[in-house]
Recover the amino acids of this structure.
């Protein structure tokens, strides 16, 4: 497929997903078929191999048995694999003519997004990926977890938190669903109550309770890291504080990186800020500009949460011209699904 030239009336957003969407052999189809994707995988894998691990993380990911996914709980493997995948997918989409006007990173995805927006260089991004993984490995002891539950933040704080004070909000996924974190034993009575009240919940496969107080012990590890940073070359929205990055009052530094690990992911508020940004950008022409949001991920992990939030926003003037795409889906041919997405986006122009 040749490079596609997209209309200047298309505002393109890349949203880099966080951890939890990795799986064995992810990216292998693109690696074997797309030279740009392969070039960036090899480049990043080479840095990680020579400076940190002594072996190929890409080969390690591809060697995992589909029936034995417990190895994905290793933070070095999951961090490295997702980082190199996201950067390589971003560069491949750039090659096909998709250049973002706005970038958003979710949790671990903020390292890849920080590189792709120009806030940090590749060496720094690899350094942070390694050290973030090294620190988080210390928090994995088998006694904490994360669950998705279909209740609002207000409902949780009013009706559940007073009786379950050790369970924390790790992310407000939508206006009616949360990611909760805490110790396994503390969740047992909550599970029973949710079942009795017929409230949907599901345990995730993540091995520790990210974005909760369980990350406090690694604060000093992260704060002491040295980050050479600058203001982004592409507008970049934080999913921690819902502010736009800049070198002066919202820089991507070591304090921010710890907040990225410790603080809850404000997914729904970030999506609302994004939609407000679209309305501001399209102020004089709501109906002709297209807002194209693309999930940078090996699997459609954010799609339903983001789409539900967009659908729920009242007075979003650009709603009818906002389109969310997840280019890849686990179990489907990566090359075919990616190029189908590109053709669909091109048909919008």
């Amino acid at each position: 497929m040749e490079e596609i030239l997209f209309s200047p009336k298309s505002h393109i957003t890349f949203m880099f997903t966080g951890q939890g969407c990795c799986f064995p052999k992810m990216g292998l189809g693109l690696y074997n078929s797309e030279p740009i994707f392969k070039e960036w995988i090899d480049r990043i894998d080479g840095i990680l191999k020579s400076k940190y691990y002594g072996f190929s993380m890409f080969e390690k990911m591809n060697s995992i048995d589909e029936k034995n996914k417990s190895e994905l709980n290793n933070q070095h493997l999951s961090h490295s694999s997702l980082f190199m995948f996201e950067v390589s997918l971003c560069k491949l989409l750039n090659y096909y003519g998709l250049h973002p006007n706005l970038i958003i990173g979710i949790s671990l995805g903020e390292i890849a997004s920080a590189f792709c927006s120009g806030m940090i260089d590749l060496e720094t991004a690899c350094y942070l990926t390694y050290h973030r993984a090294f620190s988080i490995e210390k928090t994995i002891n088998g006694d904490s977890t994360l669950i998705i539950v279909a209740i609002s933040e207000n409902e949780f704080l009013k009706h559940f938190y007073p009786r379950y004070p050790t369970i924390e909000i790790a992310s407000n996924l939508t206006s009616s669903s949360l990611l909760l974190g805490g110790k396994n034993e503390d969740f047992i009575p909550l599970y029973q109550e949710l079942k009795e009240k017929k409230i949907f919940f599901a345990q995730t496969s993540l091995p520790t309770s990210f974005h909760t107080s369980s990350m406090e012990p690694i604060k000093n590890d992260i704060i002491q890291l040295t980050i050479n940073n600058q203001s982004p070359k592409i507008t970049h929205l934080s999913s921690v504080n819902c502010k736009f990055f800049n070198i002066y009052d919202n820089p991507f530094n070591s304090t921010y990186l710890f907040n990225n690990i410790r603080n809850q992911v404000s997914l729904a508020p970030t999506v609302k800020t994004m939609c407000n940004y679209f309305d501001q950008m399209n102020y004089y022409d709501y109906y002709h500009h297209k807002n194209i949001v693309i999930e940078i991920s090996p699997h459609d992990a954010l799609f339903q949460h983001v789409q539900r939030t967009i659908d729920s926003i009242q007075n979003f003037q650009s709603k009818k011209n906002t389109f969310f795409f997840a280019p890849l889906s686990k179990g489907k041919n990566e090359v075919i699904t990616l190029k189908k997405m590109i053709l669909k986006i091109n048909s919008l122009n």
Summary: The domain at 10-140+213-347 is CATH 3.40.366.10 (Malonyl-Coenzyme A Acyl Carrier Protein; domain 2). The mean pLDDT is 93. The two ends are 17 Å apart (CA to CA).
